[in-house]
Design goal:
Blueprint: E1 3-5, E2 12-13, E3 16-17, H1 21-33, H2 37-40, H3 53-92, H4 107-119, H5 121-132, E4 135-138, H6 140-146, H7 148-161, E5 167-171, E6 178-181, E7 189-193, H8 194-199, H9 202-217, H10 221-254, H11 259-286, H12 291-309, H13 312-333, H14 338-343, H15 351-355, H16 381-394, H17 414-419, H18 421-445, H19 460-475, H20 477-480, E8 502-504, E9 514-524, E10 536-540, E11 545-549, H21 556-564, E12 577-586, E13 590-599, E14 602-605, H22 608-627
Parallel strand pairs: 5-7, 11-13
Antiparallel strand pairs: 1-8, 2-3, 4-5, 6-7, 9-10, 9-12, 10-11, 12-13, 13-14
Length: about 625
């Protein structure tokens, strides 16, 4: 029987009281304060055995290759798109001919760039932090005043790992920040904000520092620090372009008496918007360089924390308090701080997961399909809790949560398979390309020349995957976008929207799309920094945050094009009350693929369906063009 889930603190459906994640965190923290110290941590415990190291070494090697290969792949993708566009133009307009663009991938440059990013990471990341928050060096004796246990654990890990103690840095900020960085243990740094030290008790501070030092001992900080420095290059350009563009747009409104000068400033602002959108797109691509390692290293660091402290419950309480404090800071700020977004691979928790709330009977009650972690910098907090509670039970400690472990399942759920159909079809088509290519060579060896041309047609390896991606997009359409009720949003309907129910099928991990209509306040970044609508959240009337995805007929970049044409944008409505209809989906965090957004009497259509059809059609057309 489907479970009933609601959004809203203390909201009841059919007599069932459902606690939200924020209430659960508060309750668990209060319960943890009342826990008997003798049952809160182990007096004696059997250490968790080491995990297989070969996989970890391979993962670090793959991350090192990604620091070079992913930026090179982005450049290669741009080159391919421009080449296809030029080739199409030459066939449509042959009298105006341009030679196809051919750019040799500068592998040496990208290799040196990755080495530069890793080598300069101690100073580059310190500069990034200092730009937003004052920092100061903290001695181990000062740390001992906050937590003598933390001082002892750092000494023990340093001795067992045969590495020097890292530099300790105190960030003068109430925002919860904790990270370790540097390209070698001799130049490694653990930076923790004053807000965290104030919020945590002695055992929790020890668990936090043990976790960060474990990252250093496992040599994951050089790779992830280099990844963050690489991400900072386009991200800082995105920040600069968006701020400069906002300044120009503001000045253009003040120059209404001089139409020519105001128009010039507006044009400069639009160019800055295009540049900021492009830089953010590059950042999103480079971000993938460290995601897998950032998630995987958590398992290894948690083992060291548990073995060193005998207190898995302490680490759980650290994560709970970090989640609460991060959510409070983001809500007070009104949007995700840019410095936190950039440093997220080095932070202990996911920022989006901290601000979004999932209303279930308890944390981990609804199993999360682990495939949804693929674009997250950290594993879901409920998954992490379940693993720590398994350790607590094995050490005869009273666990804070009574939930079974959520192991990785290589078989994705039906909803994940539906979402991934375009990629699945692309992989199958790539295999078909290999079969056809091999058939061409076999026929050539046997003298059957009618099909021998397939052995030299390397365009199949690009054209068929694009064709498969487009066909897979069409195949998943109906299941991905179920019909919305006719009563949802009409431009002339100003009445209050009806209440809604969301039914979650527990056998499908709660990931089945549900048709919803919600009211709330639009939050997120304003101005050019949000041209792509990448930071939009719906704050419901009950105080919950749900990620909001809107798009145009030509995709996210079409939203920027609308701004160039001086069309109205949803980002201009930050802080206003809105009504949203669309498809609610639940992965690591809940989000809504909006179908329409109503602000007063104005209605904004989000063209997810049209953009999906266009994406499929373009994939099929370009795939056929290249393959044939």
């Amino acid at each position: 029987m489907p479970g009933v889930v609601s959004f809203g603190c203390g909201y009841s459906i059919e007599g069932i009281r459902v606690m939200d994640a924020r209430e659960q965190s508060d309750t668990m923290v209060e319960q943890s304060k009342q826990t008997n110290p003798s049952t809160d941590r182990a007096a004696r415990w059997k250490p968790i055995p080491p995990f297989p190291s070969l996989r970890f070494y391979l993962l670090k090697a793959l991350t090192l290759f990604g620091l070079v290969g992913i930026p090179a792949g982005l450049l290669s993708s741009v080159q391919l798109a421009l080449s296809v566009a030029m080739d199409l133009k030459n066939k449509i307009l042959p009298f105006w001919y341009y030679s196809p663009i051919a750019i040799e991938i500068p592998w040496l440059f990208f290799t040196l760039l990755a080495v530069f990013a890793i080598a300069t990471s101690p100073w580059a990341i310190a500069l990034l932090i200092r730009t937003h928050h004052p920092i100061s060096t903290m001695t181990t004796s000062t740390l001992a005043q906050y937590s003598p246990e933390a001082h002892r654990i750092l000494q023990r890990i340093a001795q067992e790992s045969a590495i020097p103690l890292p530099t300790l840095v105190l960030i003068d900020s109430p925002i919860p920040i904790a990270l370790s960085y540097g390209f070698a243990p001799q130049l490694a740094t653990i930076a923790v904000s004053q807000g965290i030290l104030t919020a945590l008790d002695e055992s929790e501070i020890a668990a936090l520092y043990a976790q960060e030092f474990a990252h250093i001992a496992h040599w994951t900080t050089p790779l992830l620090s280099g990844s963050v420095v690489l991400q900072a290059m386009p991200y800082l350009a995105y920040i600069a372009a968006s701020r400069w563009g906002d300044r120009m747009a503001f000045q253009s409104k003040r120059s209404f008496r001089f139409a020519i000068f105001g128009g010039l400033l507006k044009a400069i602002a639009n160019l800055c918007g295009l540049a900021a959108s492009g830089f953010y797109g590059v950042y999103c691509g480079v971000r993938w360089t460290g995601l897998w390692l950032s998630r995987s290293r958590t398992y290894y660091s948690d083992r060291i924390v548990c073995n060193g402290t005998g207190n898995p419950n302490g680490l759980v309480k650290v994560l709970l308090k970090l989640t609460q404090a991060t959510r409070k800071a983001i809500v007070a700020n009104g949007f995700t701080p840019m410095d936190l977004e950039l440093l997220e691979p080095l932070l202990p928790i996911n920022l989006d997961e901290s601000i979004s709330t999932r209303k279930v009977k308890s944390i981990g009650a609804v199993k999360i399909d682990r495939w949804w972690e693929i674009n997250q910098s950290q594993i879901p907090i409920s998954v992490r809790f379940s693993r720590l509670m398994v350790t607590a039970r094995s050490w005869q400690i009273k666990p804070l949560f009574k939930r079974p472990e959520q192991p990785w399942n290589w078989t994705p759920s039906a909803s994940v398979r539906t979402w991934a159909k375009p990629w699945f079809w692309a992989v199958i088509s790539y295999g078909v390309a290999w079969v056809l290519w091999g058939t061409g060579w076999v026929t050539y060896l046997f003298g059957w020349n009618r099909l021998a041309w397939l052995g030299s047609d390397y365009d199949l390896f690009l054209g068929l995957p694009l064709l498969g991606f487009g066909l897979g997009t069409f195949v998943r359409f109906n299941a991905f976008f179920p019909d919305l009720p006719a009563l949802f949003l009409r431009a002339d309907d100003r009445s209050s929207p009806p209440e809604y129910l969301i039914t979650v099928n527990e056998n499908d991990n709660g990931l089945r799309p549900e048709q919803v209509m919600l009211t709330g306040t639009l939050t997120g970044r304003s101005g050019i920094a949000n041209w792509l609508a990448q930071d939009l959240w719906l704050m419901t009337d009950q105080g919950d945050y749900i990620a909001l995805h809107v798009t145009s007929k030509t995709g996210p970049f079409g939203l920027g094009l609308a701004r160039l044409l001086n069309q109205w944008s949803i980002a201009e409505c930050i802080g206003q009350s809105i009504v949203v209809s669309g498809w609610l989906r639940q992965g690591v965090i809940p989000w809504i693929d909006a179908e329409a957004v109503r602000i007063g009497s104005r209605l904004i259509r989000s063209e997810h369906q049209f953009a999906t059809v266009m994406t499929g059609a373009i994939g099929v057309a370009i795939g056929l063009y290249i393959a044939l």
